[in-house]
Design a protein that fits this description.
The protein has a five-stranded antiparallel beta sheet with strand order 4-3-2-1-5. It has a domain of 149 residues: Butyryl-CoA Dehydrogenase, subunit A, domain 3, CATH 1.20.140.150. A hairpin with a 3-residue loop joins strand 2 and strand 3. Helix 1 packs antiparallel against helix 2 and helix 1 runs antiparallel to helix 4. 62% of the residues lie in helices and 11% in strands. The protein has 219 residues and is α+β, with helices and mostly antiparallel strands. 31% of the residues are buried. It is found in: Cell junction, Tight junction; Cell membrane. This is Claudin. It holds the Pfam family PMP22_Claudin. GO terms for molecular function: structural molecule activity. One of its GO terms (cellular component) is bicellular tight junction.
Length: 219
């Protein structure tokens, strides 16, 4: 019962991780530059994401421009696009597989099949967490390095946006959920190896007939 509750808790974490992963991939605020200028009325906020660049004006206007050209993008943005999409796909596969392998569901067949499905789902979550953690870390490193560069003007410097923090948190949720699923299945399999089921040996009918025959000889 405790293992089933732990798997359900890990499944909830994985759901939050999947939603956060998809949200971080689509959000345009991976890095933000707030330029107030000389007047608060002309203040603008520039945001750059993986798929589009957006500008928000203090007057309430909001405009976005899609990044159509892939080859013109920096290598870390191209890598972030690929790994974040892979993370979303793997985490979605993990959700489908762990639904079959969880103890609280009636899918997946016998205990061994559910255990294997649960372990496979945990591996998907761990890989999805790694694929989400790598681009967010690389993207944050590029932002910090350009921010500390003295040759770059202040107006061109950016800070990490909300999408980066969402990606970090989602990666943590996915990693924790994957570890919980894998360890719960491993413990169950290890217990089966250490304490194998006892096989009851019943005397054969041939031995019973022989014993009856020997007793008759002594009468």
């Amino acid at each position: 019962m405790a293992s089933a509750s732990l798997q359900f808790f890990a499944f909830i974490l994985a759901l939050f991780g999947v939603f956060g992963d998809i949200t971080a991939t689509l959000l345009p605020n991976w890095k933000v530059n707030a330029d107030v200028g000389s007047n608060i009325i002309t203040a603008i906020t520039q945001m750059q994401g993986l798929w589009m660049d957006c500008t928000w004006y203090s007057t309430g206007m909001f405009s976005c421009t899609l990044k159509y050209s892939v080859l013109s993008l920096p290598i870390y943005i191209q890598a972030a696009r690929t790994t974040m999409v892979l993370s979303c796909i793997l985490s979605a596969f993990g959700i489908c597989i762990t639904i079959v392998g969880m103890k609280c569901t009636k899918l997946g067949g016998d205990t061994d099949s559910k255990s294997h499905a649960c372990f496979a789902g945990g591996v998907c979550f761990i890989l999805a967490g790694i694929f989400a953690l790598v681009p967010t870390s690389w993207y944050t490193r590029e932002i910090i390095s350009s921010f500390l560069d003295q040759n770059i003007p202040e107006s061109s410097k950016h800070e990490p946006g909300g999408a980066v923090y969402t990606g970090f948190i989602s990666a943590g949720f996915l990693l924790v959920a994957g570890v919980i699923f894998c360890t719960s299945c491993f413990k169950r399999q290890q217990g089966a190896w250490i304490y194998p089921p006892k096989q009851h040996q019943f005397p054969s009918t041939e031995q019973e007939s022989n014993e009856g025959y020997n007793l008759k000889d002594y009468v």
